[in-house]
């Protein structure tokens, strides 16, 4: 049975309004965001990602989106040795994005991060990002 899902919109740019950061230092221009800037963002329930210096902001995904991602994750878990994570889990892609929170990622057994790791550094074996249309 096919599942029809509503569009999941990714909003490029700063949320409106983004509260001023603590410490008096303003927010950087798009293209200049760093991981340090990310760490200063408010914990407001939005998903923040930085890709090539650009801040991306998304709201929490809806039921249909999460259901579809979970179905994909279940299928991938049945295929091999490794670990499947669904968002939120922080990934640092060297030279491209730091951090991103893909909808789902598969980390091969030999890539397994050490116990207590707060994020995955490197390129996972597989990344899935759900893009839905109406």
Brief summary of the model shown:
With 134 residues, the chain is α+β, with helices and mostly antiparallel strands. The chain has helices spanning 35-40, 63-77, and strands at residues 11-12, 47-51, 54-58, 82-86, 91-93, 97-100, 104-108, 120-121, 126-128.
Description of the molecule:
The N terminus is likely disordered. This protein has 134 residues and is an alpha+beta fold. It folds into two domains: 48 residues, no CATH class; 66 residues, no CATH class. The two termini are 17 Å apart. The strands form three sheets. A three-stranded antiparallel β-sheet has the order 1-3-2, with no helix packed on it. It has a three-stranded antiparallel β-sheet with strand order 4-7-9, with helices on one face. Strands 6-5-8 form a three-stranded mixed β-sheet, with no helix packed on it. It has two helices and nine strands.
- Total helices: the number is 2
- Outline the biggest β-sheet: 3 strands, antiparallel
* Beta-strand proportion: 25-35%
Question: What value does the average pLDDT take?
Answer: 80
Name the structural class: alpha+beta
Walk me through the topology.
Blueprint: E1 11-12, H1 35-40, E2 47-51, E3 54-58, H2 63-77, E4 82-86, E5 91-93, E6 97-100, E7 104-108, E8 120-121, E9 126-128
Parallel strand pairs: 5-8
Antiparallel strand pairs: 1-3, 2-3, 4-7, 5-6, 7-9
Key phrases:
9 strands; three-stranded antiparallel beta sheet; single chain; globular; 134 residues; 2 helices
